[in-house]
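Friendly challenge for the regulars: who can give me the structure tokens for this chain first? No prize, just bragging rights.
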Amino acid sequence: MSGRGRLFAAPSHPVPPLRAALPIRKDPPGATEAVLLLHGFTGHPGELSIQAEAIAAAGYAVLAPRYPGHGTCRADFLATRAEDWARRALDAYLELRAEYGRVHLLGHSMGGLLATLVAARKAEEDEREPARLILFAPAFALSRRAFALAPLVARFAPVIRHGRPVPEGEAGDPDRVTLHREYRSDDLVVMAAELEWLRRRACRLLPGVRSHILVVVGERDETVPPEVARFVATRAQAAASIETRMLPGAGHVFPFDRDGATAAAFAVDFLGPGPRR
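First reply, four minutes later:
Bragging rights claimed.
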């Protein structure tokens, strides 16, 4: 097998996901509506656990799925494509829709793009009351302009080795150390190209989304610029309504750091009390 073939081969021994990366499912008694939570690029469902707990406590059923290749290992990740992640998001929505009358959406970063794809499909269903779409730092724009070049660069350099050290704030968490080694220590250019494909598709579909939309951004986000809130407000012309919130001093990972509870409170306030039987 060629070097490139080895690069894209699935692991010979399947790697189970980290416990933190397992899907989250909560079904409060009497809930009649649900919320689908979608995590970010190289992330996992556990990163939205604060929001999952708060939304379930408000009376909504909750599902946070894990996308193929996430929360396991690099070889597994490299064997997937954006279509796989989008398909898992759509399947999760359809699973919830089969059980509950209405399904709302919450997505962080790339999860915001996937949530937009699902919301665009929902618009075709012509629901009487548009569902709610919550976007945490949605990756419609990225501060690193290199992402736009990833589809071209990936043809010649699918992976660029750096061996970056584990960030100081993550060194004490074994799961974060593992995830850094597998997904973030090097530039996985070929996967950044998949993210760029997804970003462009979501940007094209955003004008057709009819949901009530809440955009939450971090003031000091170095991955997705806070100005993305203005982009959504300008582009989502068919939305039933658009609200924005700024988290002062927050970075990109605010759903699962010190600002996680505040972000969860924004989401619950926007959703309102969950209807019950």
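The CA atoms of residues 146 and 154 lie 11 Å apart. Residues 1-7 have pLDDT under 50 and may be disordered. Your move, everyone else.
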